[in-house]
Amino acid sequence: MTHLDSPATRALIDTCAQASLDLLQANLTPHGILAASRTEAAVARRYTRIFGRDAAICVMAMCGSGLPELEQGAVASLDALAAQQAANGQIPKYVDPEGQDADFWYLGCIDATLWWLIAVDHVRRHGSVGPAHWGGGVRRAIDWLLAQEHQHFRLLQQNEASDWADIMPRSGYVLYTNALWYDVKRRFALDHAEDTLYHFNHLFNPFQQDLPEYHRARLLRHYARRGRQDPGMYLSFVNLSFVGDEGDVFGNVLAIQSGLADADMARRIVDTIATAHASEPWPVRVVLHPLARDHDLWRAYMGRHQQNIVHQYHNGGIWPFVGGFWVMALAQLGLREQAWAELGRLARANEHGDWRFTEWFHGKTLAPMGMAGQSWNAAAFLLAKRLLEGSGAAW
After folding, report:
1. Which of 6, 80, 143, 169 has CA 20 to 30 A from 178's CA?
2. What is the rounded CA–CA span in Å between residue 51 and residue 115?
3. What is the pTM of this model?
4. Are 92 and 85 in contact (CB under 8 A)?
5. What's the CA dihedral at 237, 277, 284, 247 to 10 degrees?
6. Any idea what the Cα angle at residue 14 is, between residues 9 and 15, rounded to 5°?
7. Do 346 and 378 meet the contact criterion of CB atoms below 8 Å apart?
8. How do residues 143-179 score in pLDDT, each as one tens digit?
């Protein structure tokens, strides 16, 4: 049965699309889009802020929606983040809607700047602003990122727990971050994009036959391969003598979406994720092999509030917003029937709890966890649907 043969699934997808638009409108303030609906829990956990990464994903969905309130909200969200940009160019992890607070996390928040740049490019191309809008902020943001780029690998370096997976022990060269970096390089025509592509594929996929040219890359490859089997996907991070082979779904999906994975690697990634049943019953579990307390990479902070234990949060929980990117990657590879089926599953996840738009679910019990009314769930769903329908620019 194809998606077109299932009126009930199509009706659910359409209902989810309308509910997604309604949620974005409900979570919009005059200064930009909040990460989640305003509840007592969300206020206590500061989800009623404009987050760099969350807002950027929402901006791409709001821009092109055809709804004036959301179109204006897309620009306002980027403006709010730009207004609190650090003097060195870094975009904050989040800003207060009233402009009173800008947070830069414990060890920095490298991906907020990357996502902001991606959203800026998207709105410049598909919104109502001109190509020079946010020009000064863009230059400073790019300069800040370039200051963290290795001068031979042309990959960004970062601290532990300083991206969206902010209580995972990924550090050094991180897959997710550098997939975004390559996308930024292509969008803004930055130098050395081909070097980034080359070293990305040699560092994060050290099991291929082709040896890297640089002798330090060969040593990193040696450490990465030692005692490991080819996981069928990119490593989540590479540091000097330790790496992440837990199976980072989001980073691998973004590698497909950003054009870093060739056709063969992209299909291997999809097959690996599918074989692990990571999208069942809802897309998608963000780690294929969660880190237990006895794992070498386990950190004490992962157990704080029992939050990042096995099958929870970033350590194997189901995140519907990442499910939207999974659908987009499938569509990009021409796997349209599979993508439509996954979009139906994603609609079901957002519907759970009377359209709760749950932040994440326990990877085994499916218990709803985190905040309700998660804006980027709605946004990623709309982007995936838009891409499948060919009804506008999604990425």
Report:
1. 80
2. 10
3. 0.97
4. yes
5. 0
6. 95
7. no
8. 999 999 999 999 999 999 999 999 999 999 999 999 9
